[in-house]
Amino acid sequence: MKEELLNFIYSVGFYLFRIFPIKKNKIVFSNFAGKGMGDNPKYLYLALKDKMPDMDAVWLIEKDESRKAMPKGVRAVQNRSLQKIYELATAKIWIDNCRKSRYVKKRKNQYYVMTWHGGLGLKRVEKDVIDRLGKKYYHYAVHDSRQIDLMLSNSKWCTDLYQRAFWYQGDILEKGLPRNDIFFKKQCEVSEKIRKKYSIDSSSRLVIYAPTFREDHSMESYNIDFSGLLAALQEKYKAPWKILLRFHPSMSERMVIEKELREQIVDVSDYDDIYEILSVSDLLITDYSGIMFDFASTRRPAFIYAADEKDYVEERGFYWKLDMLPFPVAYSNQELMENIRLLEEEKYVRNLEDFFSLNQVCDDGNASAFVAEYILKKAGCI
Fold it and tell me: How many CB atoms lie within 10 A of CB 203?
């Protein structure tokens, strides 16, 4: 009842705030409904501020920690507040990577960019799993799609997905994803920042283990033998390694690390931007997360550890069978270590190139600047 009342108040607020003019230089950014600065909206913000020096940038947040992390010149606004409604009602441009609630009403002459939080992905989404969507989500997804002016794509595959499964028939800019630009440039400063934050020496190579969230909160599928993994990496690459763990916050708190391995394993789940972490990692291990496709832009090795594939497929449904992907797949620790030891990197890269070519992936490191210019022209800001 409380949520329904708040939604009603917010909905009324959108109409009341229409008495205020739309501000041509105001852009409201949102990342995962208030998570903070990250994903595609972050990289679009960085590109837009260079092209619009007088930009009034508003970032929707949930936690005060996110407010403290905002760069100078960005106004952080609580995601669940009347001020948020005012900012949205008077902004020229909205940039988001998740669905907006049904009470959000776009005005004429406003421009809404949906960057989405996926790209190429393994798990079925939106209309492709309509039988599993809640009625509430379905209604506000359809409402949201009707308001969107532009979606961003990094591949023909992704464009087809939006047109088929997102209740959307509007403009799609197939020029790459801003967040993936980071993989095409050396990240010396980012690397130094991350190593300093987590006290990681410069000689250690980095493997990130970033599995997906489990709805039942089970930890059983996260049973990687970290000691064996470190041994396999040392044997393969003749170098010391650190393991970076990236979990959903609720899972990170329950992950138990053996005492003798604590100096070699670093929990980076609290780091705002996973794309910065990925950009400085030498190797990725995941299960069903779409970040494998993004990380592949680096042409560095990515491995799938799918201990619970059958259960997960039944729960979510996949677009590809795992053996159709260019990444080595393991269903046990023994298979994972063997895949690492036997990896032929030249063959692996060829497989990646074939997969990207088949799906017409267009990431090239220049998406942010191109998309920023496109948005400002389309919105009439330049």
Answer: 8
